[in-house]
Amino acid sequence: MPEVTNKAKVQAPPAFPQEGRLPGTSRAVGENYARQIREANLYKQARDESGRRQHGKCCQAVHISLFFYGTNNNEKSDTQKGQHINITRTFVKTDRFS
Predict the structure, then answer these.
(1) Residue ranges of the domains in the chain?
(2) How confident is the model at residue 50 (pLDDT cuts 50, 70, 90)?
């Protein structure tokens, strides 16, 4: 086995909680949304080095959908049309919004 020569420190994310990381109540979702709006408004009010407002720059939340399913179900190689599992159908629908 080769010797490890790189002694750089490695950081790992905290353990994933059993209950997940999504907000559990509609109130928590509302508070999160309000915080995003507050942060966006603060960004828009800030000024750059020239004294101009940042309003024209992008300050939006990015929504990303990730789908992992390890059953070897492949949209292109499936023989029967319309026989996709739920995760594949969800991926196909999400992809159309991109």
Answers:
(1) 20-61, 63-98
(2) confident
Q: How far apart are CA 65 and CA 61, in angstroms?
A: 13
Residues 6+ apart with CB under 8 A from 83: none
Q: CA-to-CA distance for 73 and 85, rounded, in angstroms?
A: 8
| Cα angle 91, 92, 94; round to 5 | 65
Which one-letter amino acid corresponds to residue 87? Answer: I
Is the confidence at residue 22, as pLDDT, over 60? yes
The residue-averaged pLDDT of 22-50 equals 86
Closest CA to 91 of 63, 68, 61: 68
Q: What CA–CA distance (Å, rounded) separates 68 from 70?
A: 7
Block residue for tokens 């009010």: 45
